[in-house]
Amino acid sequence: MSIFDFTLEELEDYLVKNGFKKYNATQIIEWIYEKKVYDFNKMSNLSKKLISFLNENIRIEKLEVLQVEKSPLANKYLLRLNDNNKIECVLMNHDYGYSLCVSSQVGCNMGCSFCESGRLKKVRDLTLGELVSEVISVRDYEGVRIDSIVVMGIGEPFDNFINIKRFISVVTNNKMVGIGQRHLTISTCGLVPKIYEFADLETGVNLAISLHAPNNEIRDRIMKVNKAYKIEEVMAALDYYISKTNRRVTIEYIMLEGINDSDECARELSNLVKGKLMYVNLIPYNETSNFTMKRSNDFKIKSFYDILKSNNVNVTIRKEMGGNLSAACGQLRANAERL
Ligand code: SF4
User: Fold this and answer.
1) Cβ–ligand 1 contact at 152 (below 6 Å)
2) Which structural domain range is residue 20 located in?
């Protein structure tokens, strides 16, 4: 087991069950997360007995960085897991600090028709240790401070809900990764029951939803999940989330030429979100050779944006950070695995 597989409470319980003190957990956590000491033998305030117990039972394990693609505003990392599976992370350099986009699964079963990650079925969920190691490994590799985290990489986070809940606990704990709840965002394609569960956690963590269509007809065509949960159900779940948390929801909308980018689509989307505590993020599509779908041109994106604006919808166009990267999420992994 890896040290990154524990929340603070879990480590306390584990140590107490094995005859040690609860406060030993905090001591270990401080060494690991604050002082970045990754060797139990160097933790000078721990007893010899505890150090030998830790050496026998717990590994301190970061993920190997196999490949890095660099561009001025974002770096993409291919990371190797213990069982040789590979995942991706993207570190973005915003003017307000570094933001890390992490993966939650190896592959994804949601099968969105435009998505490179979803083209490759889920192999397995990431463990808590692997989720946390993504953050620690990239942070240490670059020697930077990460200011915010988005769980928006390969995988559907709410399909790995138990570990995502534990991840939230580790990331937002001041003694651990120490990122404020408001600087952590979980993005889902719309697993409605989990949106309700997430709302009931009342964490203050942000929620983003990959909507990508303003009606069921289009969404059915491009997102399989819409067969299970229709737009009306997703919007009702988001209303519930907002009523519980008073947090603004981000509506992610990938602009696909001739599919969801018409003026009529913009008007329908406006009607869906208008007057709600929501904002729309228009995302220029990253084309890949595995799909025929095309990115809407800049004129179309701007006109879509203008229609939303004129309907008093909060909207932004996502800056294209990728530059020359294998920019589509999952593309670096697919290339590396020759999948
Ligand atoms: S867009 Fe997200 S949910 Fe859909 S297939 Fe890709 S990784 Fe999975």
Assistant:
1) no
2) 3-57
